[in-house]
Design the sequence.
């Protein structure tokens, strides 16, 4: 019985480690900042590459335009290192045409 308990604790520990190392990224809502001009940002923690953060923010921007039956037109893209230069934040300004 004790052996099973220890084995279970090891599985929980491994599962927690995998979750922590997998990283996460999160996008904001799309905000209108002008006539047919929008902005969106996404931030990924230190375990997520800038490319993955960029993919997420582009996906959300494309979805926003697709809902309107339009195509994404990228106006500006900014990459910032945030939270002690560990996290990556990418901001896109775009329009839909």
Sequence:
């Amino acid at each position: 019985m004790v052996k099973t308990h220890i084995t279970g604790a090891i599985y929980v520990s491994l599962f927690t480690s995998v979750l922590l190392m997998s990283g996460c990224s999160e996008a904001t809502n799309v905000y209108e900042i002008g006539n047919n001009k929008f902005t969106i940002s996404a931030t990924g923690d230190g375990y997520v590459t800038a490319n993955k953060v960029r993919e997420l923010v582009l996906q959300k921007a494309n979805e926003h335009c697709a809902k309107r039956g339009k195509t994404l037109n990228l106006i500006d893209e900014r990459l910032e290192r945030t939270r002690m230069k560990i996290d990556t934040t990418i901001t896109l300004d775009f329009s839909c045409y």
In short: Helices lie at 2-22, 50-67. Residues 8-21 have pLDDT under 50 and may be disordered. Residues 2-22 form the longest helix (21 residues).
